[in-house]
Write a structure and sequence with these properties.
Layout: E1 2-6, E2 13-17, H1 25-35, E3 42-45, H2 60-88, E4 91-96, H3 109-128, E5 134-139, H4 148-152, H5 166-179, E6 183-184, H6 188-197, H7 202-213
Parallel strand pairs: 3-4, 4-5, 5-6
Antiparallel strand pairs: 1-2
Helix pairs in contact: 1-2, 2-3
Length: 216
């Protein structure tokens, strides 16, 4: 994975190749910004991986790697950079969740759990930071036309039958971030999906989730 830092007020980009599955990487990223006198005004935690299979059939290392990338790395990066943002009384954090954050899902258990963690964590610190000049926004997209599904080998699942254009998702995320919104859910279908999940019994939503993750 590569971490890009775009310096405020300048056109140059600082590229820092790294692996977020390494527990020491977030600290190394932060130290890199300090060594190069880079003030990070916007932190975007968008790196994430997916594993598809029954939990008991998957190598535990794969699940732990997912947890490190999807959960622990964003938390540590947020912790390191938000301290400086609060001191400056200015800053924005965008954490990428998922529509999967709103309900547990078979065949997708660890991923949805990791995104639920990110959503709850982000909402919590967003409330803590009110009045500080720092905002936290969580983007919760549904299926999107990127290499994500191909890499996770879930392109032929029912969930990915209807995908949003990544440019549209990115624009929605940007607008929500600039407005300081706490949660952004791109697309009418995804908004209806996440709202309806709150209205049906959890045991039914889990079954529906499994059906959506099954292959066609």
């Amino acid at each position: 994975m590569t971490f890009l830092i775009i310096s405020a007020g300048r056109l140059n980009c600082n590229i820092f190749p790294c692996d977020l599955s390494d527990i020491d990487t977030p600290k190394r990223i932060y130290e890199f910004t300090k060594e190069n006198a880079i003030d990070v005004n916007v932190l975007v935690n968008c790196a994430g991986i997916q594993i598809y299979e029954n939990f008991h059939e998957r190598d535990i290392y794969d699940t732990l790697q997912l947890m490190q990338i999807n959960m622990f790395a964003p938390v540590v990066l947020s912790k390191l950079f938000v301290h400086d943002m609060v001191k400056r009384k200015s800053g924005m954090i965008l954490n990428v969740g998922s529509t999967g954050a709103f309900a547990p899902c078979a065949l997708n258990a660890a991923y949805c759990a990791s995104k639920a963690f990110i959503l709850h964590f982000s909402e919590g610190i967003a409330e803590e930071l009110k009045g500080s000049g720092v905002t936290v926004t969580t983007l919760c997209p549904g299926a999107t036309k990127t290499n994500f599904a191909k890499r996770a080998n879930i392109e032929d699942t029912k969930m990915f039958s209807n995908m949003m254009n990544p440019d549209k998702v990115a624009k929605i995320a940007y607008k929500a971030l600039m407005k300081g919104k706490t949660i952004a859910i791109p697309g009418l279908y995804n908004k209806i999906l996440t709202f309806s999940i709150r209205l049906i019994p959890r045991k039914i939503s889990v079954r529906i989730g499994k059906q959506m993750m099954e292959r066609k």
